[in-house]
Amino acid sequence: MKLAVALLIAVVLCSSLGAGSAHEIVPSFLQTLLEGSAEQLYAGPISQYKVDDVTRAALTALKECIDGLSPQHVQALLALLRLVRAEA
User: Fold this and answer.
1) Whole-angstrom Cα distance, residue 28 to residue 20?
2) CA quadruple 85, 17, 22, 47: dihedral sign
3) Is the pTM of this model over 0.85?
4) Residue 5, Cβ neighbours under 10 Å: how many?
5) What's the pLDDT at 17?
6) How far is it, in rounded angstroms, from Cα 64 to Cα 13?
7) Measured in whole angstroms, how far is the alpha carbon of residue 12 from the centre of its chain?
8) Is residue 26 classed exposed, middle or buried when 0-12, 13-18 and 19+ CB atoms within 10 A define those classes?
9) Which residue ranges of the chain lie beneath pLDDT 70?
10) DSSP character string of 9-68
11) Residue 39, burial from CB neighbour count under 10 angstroms (0-12, 13-18, 19+)
12) Could you give the C-alpha distances from 52 to 2, 36, 55, 57, 78, in angstroms and in order?
């Protein structure tokens, strides 16, 4: 679970620094990862990308870790995401 949170924070920080080529894809992906289902990830923010089986399995494991977070932790991560979006 700590790895999932660390990964989320790293992606948010990289996104806020402009490290991603699709600046809005990363925050949208993170929001869906936090609030949506795995199916919504594939139909939404990453639908334009080909996701191989290994990546799909990794995303499923990451989503399971996030789903194991307390609602308070999810809300804190969403607040961080909103803050990063507002400053971008």
Assistant:
1) 13
2) negative
3) no
4) 15
5) 46
6) 22
7) 8
8) buried
9) 1-24, 88
10) HHHHHHHHTT-SSSTTHHHHHHHHHHHS-HHHHHHTTTTTS---HHHHHHHHHHHHHHHT
11) exposed
12) 25, 20, 5, 9, 27
The percent of residues above 90 in pLDDT, for the chain, comes to 8
Structure tokens at 75: 């809300």
The tokens describing 45, both together, are 């923010």
The two structure tokens encoding residue 31: 């929001």
Q: Which two tokens stand for residue 12?
A: 């948010």
Cβ density class 54-83: b for 16+ within 10 Å, e for less: eeeeebeebbebbeebeeeeeeebeebbee
Phi and psi at residue 80, to the nearest 5° = -65, -40
Contact 31, 81 (CB under 8 A): yes
